[in-house]
Write a structure and sequence with these properties.
12% strand; disordered N terminus; five-stranded mixed beta sheet; alpha/beta; Beta-carbonic Anhydrase, Chain A
């Protein structure tokens, strides 16, 4: 995506990836869905990690998907997708919103790690999205740095009806925020180019805190 120059001061080795994952975006998405099903059944495959695998991963990483998720402690992507070390490139920020730093991290995943699948992952009951709705509907103000974060989410929830019951309103706002972030990512020239070449897939999803299920959006 944008802002590649932000990485210019880091050592070149930080960007080295000897090979892209031998997997398509559709296959990557299927792995996430199947991993969440194992998680729901209580049959996760990776309770521990062998030292030889860690040593192998120390040489390079080849994640098959990049996840932009919320910082909420109840939404750890590796666990809810039953993914092992080195399988997911995870970017987390409150409200799973975007900023220059997020764009830069995603560009790194696309250019250097060549992950074929990108997922914007929201979750029910998101506090950052709820704060954005409070700002929009009631003019609520927050501490300065939280306000800066919330202001990025407010445009995403403007279409959500104030007449809805509170729970439904927040649920719709969470999904609207995921779709808004996807729209902004899709508008970057880098993503337009990669999608035109059939080199990546971008999908949205919402995690249910009460059940553990991930719903991928159509």
């Amino acid at each position: 995506m944008c802002y590649a120059d932000e990485f210019a001061t880091l050592p070149a080795m930080a960007f080295t990836s000897h090979a892209s994952p031998d997997i398509t975006a559709d296959q990557a998405l299927r792995r996430l869905i199947e991993g969440n099903r194992r998680f729901l059944r209580g049959q996760a495959r990776f309770p521990t990690m062998r030292k030889e695998i860690l040593a192998e991963l120390a040489r390079e990483q080849r994640p098959y998907a990049t996840i932009l998720g919320c910082s909420d402690s109840r939404v750890p992507p590796e666990l809810l997708f039953d993914a092992s070390f080195g399988e997911l490139f995870v970017i987390r920020v409150a409200g799973n919103t975007v900023s220059p730093e997020i764009y830069g991290s995603m560009q790194y995943a696309g250019v250097h790690l060549q992950t074929p699948l990108f997922v914007v992952l929201g979750h029910e009951g998101c506090g950052a999205v709820a704060a954005a709705m409070e700002s929009r509907l009631h003019g609520a103000r927050h501490h300065s740095r939280i306000e800066a974060l919330v202001s990025k989410i407010v445009p995403a929830v403007r279409s959500v009806s104030a007449k809805l019951p509170p729970n439904r309103r927040l649920s719709d706002a969470v999904e609207a925020n995921v779709r808004w972030v996807m729209k902004r990512i899709n508008q970057t020239p880098e993503v337009k180019a990669r999608r035109a070449e059939g080199q990546m897939m971008l999908v949205g999803a919402v995690y249910a805190l009460r059940t553990g299920r991930v719903k991928f959006l159509k």
